[in-house]
Design a protein that fits this description.
- Residues 1-32 form the signal peptide.
- Pfam families: CAP (PF00188).
- One of its GO terms (biological process) is defense response to other organism.
- InterPro entries: Allrgn_V5/Tpx1_CS, CAP_dom, CAP_sf, CRISP-related.
- This is Allergen V5/Tpx-1-related.
- The longest helix has 13 residues, at 36-48.
- The chain is 25% helix and 27% strand.
- By secondary structure, the protein is α+β, with helices and mostly antiparallel strands.
- It has helices at residues 36-48, 59-71, 99-108, 126-131, and strands spanning 3-9, 14-22, 56-57, 86-92, 113-114, 119-120, 138-145, 151-158.
- Helix 1 runs parallel beside helix 3 (99-108).
- The protein has a 6-stranded mixed β-sheet, sandwiched between helices. A two-stranded antiparallel sheet has the order 5-6.
- It has one domain: 3-Layer(aba) Sandwich (Pathogenesis-related Protein p14a).
């Protein structure tokens, strides 16, 4: 079993969610080749659930994500890039994690989002709100196997979301 952890970049602060999720039910065969659709499909499904339009794959944003993922190969640390895009990160202790599992983890933080107050209650929800941020239209993601055998996943969003005081949808 693997444990997956995530982090999200907010407009005014970085919030790290140390949500450990046992992936016994989510584990799938190791990805031989990851496609943009592997990232887009779970993002767009979550967005459709709140009537937000789909994202499109952006090769420039994806190249940025890949370059940053390659910087994390040695340590697999959940360290935000500090770059120009919105960002969700995940890392796993296993190399068998399908990239969709990371997106599922980010979306699972929806339980902490209270639309009425536009705030997270009882936990971090910034990864969820970035996934469904209505103004984020372009997506670029990457996944690498780290030196420790784990997996590092990054999705970058343009324009960035999680702007303080604004609602995601």
């Amino acid at each position: 079993m693997a444990r997956l952890y995530c982090t999200s970049k907010l407009e005014s602060a970085s919030v790290i969610c140390l949500i450990g999720l046992t992936l016994a039910l989510l584990m799938q065969v190791s990805q031989a080749q990851t496609t943009p659709q592997d990232f887009l499909a779970p993002h767009n499904a979550a967005r459709a659930n709140v009537s937000v339009g789909p994202m499109t794959w952006n090769t420039t944003v994806a190249a940025y994500a890949m370059a940053y993922a390659n910087q994390r190969v040695a340590d697999c640390n959940l360290t935000l890039s500090g770059g120009p895009y919105g960002e969700n990160l995940a890392t796993s202790t296993s190399s068998n994690v399908f990239v969709g599992d990371a997106v599922k983890l980010w979306v699972s933080t929806k339980i902490f989002y209270d639309y009425k107050s536009n705030s997270c209650i009882g936990g971090n929800c910034g990864t969820y709100t970035q996934v469904v941020w209505r103004n984020s239209t372009d997506l670029g993601c990457a996944s690498v196997t780290c030196s420790n055998g784990g997996t590092f996943v990054i999705c970058s969003y343009y324009p960035p979301g999680n702007i303080v005081g604004e609602r995601p949808y």
